[in-house]
Amino acid sequence: MSTVRGVRQPTIKEVASRAGVSPMTVSRTLAGGRNVRPDVQERVMAAVRELGYYRNENARSLRPGQPSGLIGVAITNLANPYYGNFALGVEEVAAEHGRRIILGNTGEDDARERQLVSDFIGRQVDGLILVPTSGDAAHLRPERLGEVPLVLASRRVPGLDADTVLLDDVGGAYRGTAALLDAGHTRIGFLGNRSSVFTGERRYRGYERAMTERGVPVDPAIVARDQQDVDAASRAARAMFDLADPPTAVFSANNRNTIGAMREIGRRLRDGVPGPRPAVVSFDDFELSELMPVPVTIIDHDARLLGREAATLLFSRLDGSAEGPARTVELPVSIESP
Amino acid sequence: MSTVRGVRQPTIKEVASRAGVSPMTVSRTLAGGRNVRPDVQERVMAAVRELGYYRNENARSLRPGQPSGLIGVAITNLANPYYGNFALGVEEVAAEHGRRIILGNTGEDDARERQLVSDFIGRQVDGLILVPTSGDAAHLRPERLGEVPLVLASRRVPGLDADTVLLDDVGGAYRGTAALLDAGHTRIGFLGNRSSVFTGERRYRGYERAMTERGVPVDPAIVARDQQDVDAASRAARAMFDLADPPTAVFSANNRNTIGAMREIGRRLRDGVPGPRPAVVSFDDFELSELMPVPVTIIDHDARLLGREAATLLFSRLDGSAEGPARTVELPVSIESP
DNA sequence: CCCGATGTTGGTAACGTTACCAACCGCGAG
DNA sequence: CTCGCGGTTGGTAACGTTACCAACATCGGG
């Protein structure tokens, strides 16, 4: 940490002496003014305005039992609009409860997550909301976190029992795949994340269940499960479509894979590559999907709502309205046919 | 089996007594261990691990001159990927300097911005980074902020002299419009924000300059400057294209207007509406632009870099390497023809 | 063997705030 | 006129931490 010029804000004492009262009277006035004469309150508020005084929140939260008013939020990738919306939802609910959020980006890095959580605890956060990097759970155990409540979002951590907010990944993937099967497709490819990614695994399970329930075998040749970014997804789609026996439809488990697949489909059409024009089901919405050259079904959801739900769960622990074992909220997803 | 209940965070005193030393020795050990015997350090670290101790950062920053390690960041709309990337850039540089960010969303609301800034100051932030809502500047004046340095991003505040990071809005819009003129277009529409939005005004100026420099008159009938969201942009594009004398090309001043225009263009093609297929220049990139049914030129830039630049400017003030009058950094934009 | 230098450790005070208690005021009831 | 009560105000201590200084141990050189 680099050196910093000292930040000299006026203190409560300076306000007090300017208003001709004691610091206690200033404190009482700022706390609502109970049992302070109206004319004294006015003098105090005038001094506050004149000096540009702000209460030192860090000093306030020093006394035990006092909340810091901060919620620690760690997400995996702020550049992804999904997590931006998620963070927005958390911020909204936090603001409704008079709290601020401290935000950290983990970049899917376990070490960074541990570092962020330590720092959040050190800053006396009132609660933690985390999109876990699915590493180990040691630093998230209650004995490490003390009394700080924790809510997991989007993913679970193996072996950790905590309040969790999830999407209906399995159900959404199941219904999306079923829609393709209902439309007569039997050769349906899968594009998604590897199984160590919690949502990747769940969405694959939904796909697999729909296929096997209808007696359609899953062909590993048209299942690609290791694409994290658009370029990798594009390459995986290309390999799949280049097969002698390419899929007639594709289930894409997330936004990144859908965009990659679309790029490859667009390229083939521009270059006049022969072959089927696959139907696509995408878990995650994307803009201008209606302008795509192939029919796209969207499994849609609201990341902002997910964030709101996570924060609501957290505050229900903070205000004591919820006690007992960890709860899981699974938000529904909607399906929009082209 | 009993649930592991969270416990109060241990203090430095408890660590000290467990390690059989004084709090000062614990403090010294955690501060790097200068002048502490190695075996004592080990005892202390063992106690720290056993008790799960974290330094109380709020208490640390209580002594004057000590930085809080927090940077206050207020942006207008976290749901917009542009600002998500911006926040990511700020977070990255802050993390490189061992700082965390407190994030607030203003939603373009002046009152909310004032409230956020007050709270940030009250939390003793070491610096502020703000995408201003372009309201008045009273709460951002140095006499209100004390010694807390401020960096504005994307926009200026009228009458406020502060470090600022901008895009080359005028130049980008000029070059984008010029590209259309070079391609032979003379009837070029404009879609953008109203002039009270800082970037809206600057981008219009670039468009206007390119037009007048080449002696092409600006026709108010094909200039629409009051669309904040996709639906409004779509309606404005529709009205423009429905004219007896519609534009053959469109300059769109931001992402939201581009998406709206694209929706309308796609609708007309689907519905077989007669008329020209306008070329489009878009200030802001968007995904799958290469799949659009009309040629799209992108004026691209890197919001994450903008965030990094803003944070770099802030830290140059914090570590004293930059002094003197307010500086403005204008980041270049690139043009990608279809 | 002593002395100063160096390394190690602990006590005290202070950062800004507020809970708690004590002191004081004015007013109405007895 | 006194007493007591409620409303108002101020003093003190404490929250967890670290800068500063004092105290003590150890060691090498004279």
UniProtKB/TrEMBL annotation, chains A, B:
<feature type="domain" description="HTH lacI-type">
    <location>
        <begin position="10"/>
        <end position="64"/>
    </location>
</feature>
<dbReference type="InterPro" id="IPR010982">
    <property type="entry name" value="Lambda_DNA-bd_dom_sf"/>
</dbReference>
<dbReference type="GO" id="GO:0000976">
    <property type="term" value="F:transcription cis-regulatory region binding"/>
</dbReference>
<dbReference type="Pfam" id="PF00356">
    <property type="entry name" value="LacI"/>
</dbReference>
<keyword id="KW-0238">DNA-binding</keyword>
<dbReference type="InterPro" id="IPR000843">
    <property type="entry name" value="HTH_LacI"/>
</dbReference>
<dbReference type="GO" id="GO:0003700">
    <property type="term" value="F:DNA-binding transcription factor activity"/>
</dbReference>
<keyword id="KW-0805">Transcription regulation</keyword>
<dbReference type="InterPro" id="IPR028082">
    <property type="entry name" value="Peripla_BP_I"/>
</dbReference>
<protein>
    <submittedName>
        <fullName>LacI family transcriptional regulator</fullName>
    </submittedName>
</protein>
<dbReference type="Pfam" id="PF13377">
    <property type="entry name" value="Peripla_BP_3"/>
</dbReference>
<dbReference type="InterPro" id="IPR046335">
    <property type="entry name" value="LacI/GalR-like_sensor"/>
</dbReference>
<keyword id="KW-0804">Transcription</keyword>
